TrEMBL record:
Its cofactor is NAD(+). It comes from the Bacteria. Its EC number is 5.1.3.2. The keyword Isomerase applies. One of its GO terms (molecular function) is UDP-glucose 4-epimerase activity. This is UDP-glucose 4-epimerase. Belongs to the NAD(P)-dependent epimerase/dehydratase family. It is an enzyme of class 5 (isomerase). InterPro entries: Epimerase_deHydtase, NAD(P)-bd_dom_sf, UDP_G4E. Keywords: Carbohydrate metabolism, Isomerase, NAD. Pathway: Carbohydrate metabolism; galactose metabolism.
Length: 333
């Protein structure tokens, strides 16, 4: 099997590509390297360019007519940045994605995995959600994901296209073989900020401490990026079982999480245990775009993909710390 991975030089896309390779699937990667890294696509089939470039996508399919599926992982993902730059986020995550869908369908590829986000959910009373839960995206980033899900569902009704939207919860960790990890030196998400504070000897601030959770901090479903990547491999392998080519159903969604809710305070405590170094912590107001969060019920993904996560929160923290130590030498910084 050969698959096109849009955004395959980024954190998620490159890890999915590694999982594909380890499973005997050949990834073909397209990435404009705005946030992705050339080091992550070394020795891989790689085309540098934009997903909206029709001539480029046509050339990729001409060079690789045996591509049987697309994994769409290309996106901007920083919530506070999306609040400050909504036009940029809608342009990159929606407008250009529309162009990619057009190029893919024109080239006759009808299997499409879309990287969506659990940030589109309205949390339930107990903070759990499943694929039927109400949606309430509260940041421009989250809204771009919700919009694209609606777009893709509409496209499956109009074109020869089948789509599975994979709603990610909160990825942590790195490729356990340390081939790839977070490409940014100072990531803005929780684990990245913890590592930055630890390395700099600075105080870590828990942003948002008056949410209606068991300890006042937000709640998340932290999933190891390698477990997330394995789920993509299973979705590719079982695509025609989930959405048969001759079936009436053309669109489906699957939540990818662990099924366990971890509060921010609990995560910070786990980080301290794994790092085994002093870390000062204080409370602070929530940031623009922050939400209380949620965690998923996992029955549907387990049944559809035969998949369950293998790694723990502590494993994800440990691999992230290992990657942070190796990152400068791997990326030449």
């Amino acid at each position: 099997m050969k698959v096109l991975i849009a955004g395959g030089a980024g954190f998620i896309g490159s890890t999915v590509a590694s999982a594909c390779i380890d499973s005997g699937i050949t990834p073909v990667i397209v990435d404009n390297l705005v946030t992705g890294r050339a080091e992550y696509v070394r020795d891989r089939l790689f085309y540098e360019g934009d997903i909206a470039d029709g001539a480029l996508i046509d050339r990729i399919f001409a060079d690789h007519p045996d591509i049987s599926a697309v994994v769409h992982a290309a996106a901007l993902i920083v919530v506070p940045e999306s609040v400050a730059e909504p036009v940029r986020y809608y342009r990159e995550n929606v407008a250009k994605s529309l162009e990619l869908i057009s190029h893919v369908t024109r080239n006759g590829c009808d299997r499409y995995l879309f990287s969506s986000s659990a940030s589109i959910y309205a949390p339930g009373a107990d903070f759990t959600v499943d694929e039927t839960s109400a949606l309430r995206p509260e940041s421009p980033y989250a809204r771009t994901k919700a919009v694209m899900e609606w777009v893709l569902e509409d496209c499956t009704n109009a074109y020869d296209l089948r789509v599975i939207s994979l709603r990610y919860f909160n990825p942590i960790g790195a490729d356990p073989k340390m081939r790839t990890g977070l490409q940014h030196a100072q990531p803005t998400h929780l684990l990245g900020r913890l590592i930055t504070a630890l390395e700099a000897g600075e105080e870590f601030r828990i942003t948002g401490t008056d949410w209606p959770t068991r300890d006042g901090s937000g709640i998340r479903d932290f999933i190891h990026v390698w477990d997330l990547a394995r789920a993509h491999v299973e979705a590719l392998r079982r695509f025609d079982e989930v959405l048969p080519a001759e079936g009436s159903k053309r669109y489906d969604v699957l939540n990818l999480g662990t099924g366990t809710g971890t509060t921010v305070r609990e995560f910070v405590a786990a980080f301290r245990r794994v790092a085994d170094r002093p870390l000062r912590v204080s409370d602070a107001p929530s940031r623009p775009g922050d939400v209380v969060g949620s965690y998923t019920r996992t029955d549907k993904a387990a049944a559809a993909l035969g998949w369950t996560p293998d790694y723990s929160v502590e494993d994800g923290i440990r691999h992230s710390l290992e990657w942070a130590a190796l990152r400068p030498s791997i990326l030449g910084e």
